[in-house]
């Protein structure tokens, strides 16, 4: 767990005490397997590293597990408004206002001139036939945004993605998607990272 010294840093641990808000729900609300993962978080410009984090994509918050000065393990829900970005494992997330309304957490893939933003969610749906649970978490759902040459666009399918690009490279993009066996709706972030690198070469006038 986090070094106990973090227990003295109120900027990090001054959040809500964690507790299970949905005890009669099957499954878990997290992006990954429900386990804590090593990572880091930037809070009001200060970077905290060597943390153990979980990202709750139902309630949209980040949890940190740390050891208190008394030696006890504790979990705190970080205050969203104070977070500028966080990293869990190899996944990088920023808190951004891209679609109007309130800022949200987005996983960020790629770099200019083409950046993908993925917003992740799990929903709760009613469950019947099991007296232990009244509802269950869905699989992770994603929504996409693409920043292309400084402008942000929503897309949800191969067709709507390709249409964001100049017609001169749309055919090559379709071939690239097919050759890399990319499913826009279900590809892993690792697969998308590799695709983004290859597509970036097309945008810059080269071959993938």
Task: Provide structural commentary.
The chain is of the alpha+beta class. Helices cover 18% and strands 39% of the residues. It has helices at residues 10-13, 158-162, 167-179, 189-203; strands at residues 16-17, 25-26, 37-43, 46-56, 61-67, 73-77, 83-88, 91-96, 104-111, 114-121, 124-126, 135-137, 141-148, 151-155. The strands form two sheets. An eleven-stranded antiparallel sheet has the order 1-6-5-4-3-7-8-9-10-13-14. It has a three-stranded mixed sheet with strand order 2-12-11, with no helix packed on it. Strand 7 (83-88) and strand 8 (91-96) form a beta hairpin. The longest helix has 15 residues, at 189-203. The protein is globular and about 60 Å long.
Number of strands: 14
Query: Which residues sit in consecutive blocks of at least 5 with pLDDT less than 50?
Result: 1-5
| Average pLDDT metric | 88
Q: Estimate the strand proportion.
A: 35-45%
Shape: globular
Number of helices: 4
Overall structural class, as computed from helix and strand content, comes to: alpha+beta
Short description:
Helices cover 18% and strands 39% of the residues.
